[in-house]
Amino acid sequence: VQLQASGGGLVQAGGSLRLSCTTSRRTASNNAVGWFRQAPGKEREFVAAIAWNGGSTFYGDSVLGRFTISRDNAKNTVSLQMNSLKPEDTAVYYCAVSRGSYGSRLSSEYQYWGRGTLVTVSS
Questions:
Q1: Cα angle 109-56-24, degrees, rounded to a multiple of 5
Q2: Beta-carbon neighbour count of residue 30 at 10 Å?
Q3: Residues near 97 by Cβ (< 8 Å), separated by ≥ 6?
Q4: Interatomic CA distance for residues 64 and 68, integer angstroms
Q5: Residues 88, 90, 92, 98: is their CA dihedral positive or negative?
Q6: Rg for the chain (alpha carbons), in Å?
Q7: What per-residue confidence (pLDDT) applies to 34?
Q8: Successive 10-residue mean pLDDT values, the chain, 123 residues
Q9: Which residues touch 46 (CB under 8 Å, ≥6 apart)?
Q10: Cβ atoms of residues 4 and 115 within 8 Å
Protein backbone atom coordinates (compact mmCIF):
# COMPACT_ATOMS: atom_id res chain seq x y z
CA VAL A 1 0.00 0.00 0.00
CA GLN A 2 1.51 3.27 -1.08
CA LEU A 3 0.41 6.86 -0.94
CA GLN A 4 2.50 9.74 -2.14
CA ALA A 5 1.70 13.33 -1.32
CA SER A 6 3.30 16.12 -3.30
CA GLY A 7 2.93 19.77 -4.16
CA GLY A 8 4.03 21.42 -0.95
CA GLY A 9 6.31 24.41 -0.87
CA LEU A 10 6.77 27.97 0.23
CA VAL A 11 4.10 30.53 -0.62
CA GLN A 12 3.22 34.01 0.54
CA ALA A 13 0.08 34.69 2.50
CA GLY A 14 -2.88 35.02 0.18
CA GLY A 15 -1.35 32.68 -2.34
CA SER A 16 -2.39 29.22 -3.52
CA LEU A 17 -0.98 25.74 -3.68
CA ARG A 18 -2.33 22.47 -5.01
CA LEU A 19 -1.44 19.26 -3.25
CA SER A 20 -1.76 15.87 -4.87
CA CYS A 21 -2.01 12.41 -3.36
CA THR A 22 -1.39 9.43 -5.58
CA THR A 23 -2.75 6.15 -4.29
CA SER A 24 -2.57 2.57 -5.41
CA ARG A 25 -5.73 1.70 -7.30
CA ARG A 26 -6.58 -1.34 -5.25
CA THR A 27 -6.30 0.62 -2.06
CA ALA A 28 -8.32 3.70 -2.70
CA SER A 29 -10.88 3.16 -5.42
CA ASN A 30 -13.59 2.10 -2.93
CA ASN A 31 -12.44 4.16 0.02
CA ALA A 32 -12.70 7.72 1.13
CA VAL A 33 -9.50 9.73 1.20
CA GLY A 34 -8.68 12.49 3.62
CA TRP A 35 -6.12 15.19 4.20
CA PHE A 36 -4.75 16.02 7.61
CA ARG A 37 -2.06 18.43 8.72
CA GLN A 38 0.25 18.81 11.64
CA ALA A 39 2.05 21.97 12.63
CA PRO A 40 5.09 21.93 14.91
CA GLY A 41 4.06 21.38 18.49
CA LYS A 42 0.42 20.83 17.61
CA GLU A 43 -1.83 17.83 17.24
CA ARG A 44 -2.79 16.43 13.90
CA GLU A 45 -5.76 18.30 12.47
CA PHE A 46 -8.40 17.18 10.02
CA VAL A 47 -8.44 19.23 6.82
CA ALA A 48 -10.76 17.61 4.29
CA ALA A 49 -12.16 14.31 3.10
CA ILE A 50 -13.85 13.00 -0.01
CA ALA A 51 -16.05 9.94 -0.48
CA TRP A 52 -14.98 7.03 -2.63
CA ASN A 53 -16.89 8.30 -5.67
CA GLY A 54 -16.34 11.99 -5.06
CA GLY A 55 -20.01 12.39 -4.28
CA SER A 56 -19.54 14.06 -0.92
CA THR A 57 -16.88 16.18 0.68
CA PHE A 58 -16.40 17.83 4.04
CA TYR A 59 -13.88 20.17 5.56
CA GLY A 60 -12.37 21.31 8.79
CA ASP A 61 -13.72 24.61 10.05
CA SER A 62 -10.41 26.40 9.64
CA VAL A 63 -10.20 25.73 5.90
CA LEU A 64 -13.86 25.81 4.90
CA GLY A 65 -14.38 28.10 1.93
CA ARG A 66 -10.68 28.26 1.10
CA PHE A 67 -9.71 24.66 0.35
CA THR A 68 -11.28 22.27 -2.13
CA ILE A 69 -10.76 18.52 -2.25
CA SER A 70 -11.34 16.51 -5.41
CA ARG A 71 -10.47 13.11 -6.80
CA ASP A 72 -9.91 11.43 -10.12
CA ASN A 73 -10.19 7.69 -9.67
CA ALA A 74 -9.08 7.07 -13.23
CA LYS A 75 -5.77 8.67 -12.30
CA ASN A 76 -5.71 7.36 -8.71
CA THR A 77 -5.27 10.91 -7.51
CA VAL A 78 -6.83 13.06 -4.82
CA SER A 79 -6.08 16.76 -4.90
CA LEU A 80 -6.35 19.56 -2.39
CA GLN A 81 -6.59 23.04 -3.85
CA MET A 82 -5.61 25.57 -1.23
CA ASN A 83 -6.45 29.21 -1.79
CA SER A 84 -6.14 32.33 0.34
CA LEU A 85 -3.42 30.69 2.37
CA LYS A 86 -2.59 32.03 5.79
CA PRO A 87 0.55 31.67 7.92
CA GLU A 88 -1.46 29.43 10.26
CA ASP A 89 -1.86 26.96 7.41
CA THR A 90 1.83 26.16 7.72
CA ALA A 91 2.14 22.45 8.47
CA VAL A 92 3.07 19.07 7.11
CA TYR A 93 0.11 17.82 5.12
CA TYR A 94 -0.72 14.12 4.97
CA CYS A 95 -3.12 12.17 2.83
CA ALA A 96 -4.72 9.03 4.15
CA VAL A 97 -7.08 6.30 3.01
CA SER A 98 -10.14 5.69 5.13
CA ARG A 99 -11.38 2.34 6.38
CA GLY A 100 -14.76 3.19 4.91
CA SER A 101 -16.25 4.70 1.81
CA TYR A 102 -17.41 8.07 3.11
CA GLY A 103 -14.61 9.36 5.30
CA SER A 104 -14.33 10.79 8.77
CA ARG A 105 -12.83 13.68 10.69
CA LEU A 106 -11.14 11.19 12.99
CA SER A 107 -7.60 10.16 12.14
CA SER A 108 -8.23 6.78 13.77
CA GLU A 109 -10.66 5.98 10.95
CA TYR A 110 -7.84 6.07 8.39
CA GLN A 111 -5.80 2.98 7.84
CA TYR A 112 -3.12 3.99 5.38
CA TRP A 113 -1.02 7.12 5.52
CA GLY A 114 1.43 8.64 3.14
CA ARG A 115 4.50 10.66 3.86
CA GLY A 116 3.68 14.26 4.35
CA THR A 117 4.46 17.26 2.25
CA LEU A 118 5.49 20.52 3.89
CA VAL A 119 3.52 23.69 3.25
CA THR A 120 5.02 26.93 4.50
CA VAL A 121 3.08 30.17 4.28
CA SER A 122 5.03 33.34 4.90
CA SER A 123 3.45 36.52 6.18
A1: 60
A2: 12
A3: 1, 3, 23, 27, 28, 31, 32, 33, 110, 111, 112, 113
A4: 8
A5: positive
A6: 13
A7: 97
A8: 91 98 78 96 97 95 98 93 98 96 95 95 96
A9: 34, 36, 60, 105, 106, 107
A10: yes
